[in-house]
Write a structure and sequence with these properties.
Distance between the termini: 54 Å
Shape: globular
Strand content: over 45%
Order of helices and strands: EEEEEEEE
Low-confidence stretches: 1-6
Mean pLDDT: 91
CATH topology of the domain at 30-126: Immunoglobulin-like
Length: 146
């Protein structure tokens, strides 16, 4: 059974619907096993795009996967059972809760406790102007070159 923190107010996602999690800490019932990231930076436009695959298991049945995300435009999120079975890929609905830098990925069918699943997320964003997230930086060599 999915649990929430003891806060009484249900947070609202960026689209106004209730966000299914109200704790800044991620739920413990989703266990990440392995991450694969592919990121392409465009230093001319100061943007990037990428795909991340996360292998997960659930310790209890759930339809909700909560992850951290900061200022990413998620264009596609899918779930498949196992690591290789692309035929079982199903789209996930995405809710954003910027106050906690979280997204909720909503599966059409509950994940079962135990099996391996793969979440694939396609996204894009601007390179950060601070030292938070993925950012552009320069350095000088000992010879003074940038």
């Amino acid at each position: 059974m999915e649990s929430k923190s003891s806060d009484t107010a249900s947070p609202k996602a960026s689209n106004g619907v209730p966000f299914p999690w109200n704790n800044i800490r991620l739920p413990e019932y989703i266990i990440p096993i392995h991450y694969d990231l592919m990121i392409h930076a465009n230093l001319s436009t100061l943007t990037f795009w990428g795909t991340t695959e996360v292998e997960i298991t659930a310790s209890q049945p759930t339809s909700t996967i909560i992850m951290h995300s900061h200022q990413l435009q998620i264009s596609k999120a899918t779930l498949r059972r196992g690591a290789e079975d692309r035929l079982s890929e199903e789209p996930l609905s995405v809710l954003e809760y910027p106050a906690h830098e979280q997204v909720a990925l909503l599966a059409p069918q509950p994940l079962l406790a135990g099996p391996l699943y793969t979440v694939t997320i396609d996204y894009s964003a601007n390179l950060s102007e601070s030292f938070h997230g993925f950012y552009k930086s320069t350095y000088r060599t000992q010879e003074g070159e940038m």
